[in-house]
Design goal:
This protein is α/β, with parallel strands linked by helices. The chain is 32% helix and 28% strand. It contains seven helices and eleven strands. α5 (186-196) links the parallel β10 (178-181) and β11. α1 (58-73) packs across α2 (92-109) and α4 (167-173) packs parallel to α5. It is globular, with a radius of gyration of 24 Å.
Length: 269
């Protein structure tokens, strides 16, 4: 497991290393993939962030890393005034863990809660490009999760909501130069480049810094009056979780006459 910890200092706002108490902070939780993070920000600007690689151990790693971040920053949890959480799409277990923690903290601190689309956070750092932005995450079963964003005239637009498709089907829909971003495996990158050629621009992965982008997007939405109801906010699952049907352990129903016949044949043996 690797860790990446950053502290961004802004004159007049915060000096975490010196232990100055700061209020009006947002806490962002991202457990939507194997690259997880917790981030402290002030009005959407990252103050400090802890990012780590996890092997589906979100349950045991999230809270210890959150405590570690707060201790390193010398920040008390009561200084947090809003919770932002990545709502997916992504790992079923990861999203469940992050969402549960975010809801619990928001309820305990009685502060606003906001969920932000993970794919939107992958696309937003490239808004300045001017091309359509196509974030992609591998979704298993030879499918990918994707959406479509574009910034035009300083307005950020979602042109296509998160959905599941295949690489081949997606490439058939691309008619203009498009920037692909996100946690894209090498085999999918190769297929996109083979099918689209110069129409495809492959951006370097920004996932280790996704927490900062989620904080920025979350603050924009919060300052615009948006927030989610902890009761109704749910992870963005694009398919139902795969649950193995339990084997029926109930013995078959046997009538009294059938039972007598069975005992009769056994007695003859």
């Amino acid at each position: 497991m690797f860790r990446f910890c950053s502290g961004i200092l802004h004159s007049g706002i915060i000096y975490l290393e010196l232990g100055v108490r700061i209020s009006n902070m947002e806490l962002t939780i991202d457990t939507s993939s194997n690259i997880a993070s917790v981030t402290l920000s002030h009005e959407g600007e990252t103050l400090t962030s802890l990012t780590w690689q996890t092997a589906r151990n979100h349950t045991t790693e999230l809270l210890p890393n959150l405590i570690s971040l707060l201790q390193q920053a010398k920040v008390e949890l009561r200084s947090v005034e809003a919770i932002i959480v990545a709502k997916g799409p992504g790992s079923f277990n990861g999203l469940r863990v992050g969402m549960s923690a975010a809801k619990g903290l928001a309820a305990a601190l009685n502060i606003p809660l906001l969920g932000v689309d993970t794919l939107e956070a992958e696309a937003y750092p490239f808004a300045f490009i001017g091309f359509p932005l196509r974030p992609v995450h591998k979704a298993g079963r030879e499918e990918i999760a994707t959406a479509l964003y574009l910034q035009e005239d300083d307005e950020w637009h979602c042109l296509e909501e998160a959905n599941l498709t295949t690489v081949r089907a997606l490439c058939r829909r691309i008619k203009q130069k498009t920037l692909f971003c996100g946690e894209i495996p090498d085999d999918i990158v190769s297929q996109i480049q083979q099918d689209l050629g110069k129409q495809a621009i492959i951006a370097p992965s920004n996932s280790p810094f996704r927490g900062s982008t989620l904080a920025t997007l979350g603050w924009r939405k919060l300052s615009g009056g948006e927030q989610d109801d902890p009761v109704t906010l749910q992870p963005l699952y694009l398919r139902s979780p795969h649950i193995t049907k339990p084997r029926d352990k109930t013995p078959p129903f046997v009538t009294p006459s059938e039972a007598r016949k069975t005992r009769k044949w056994k007695s003859r043996d």
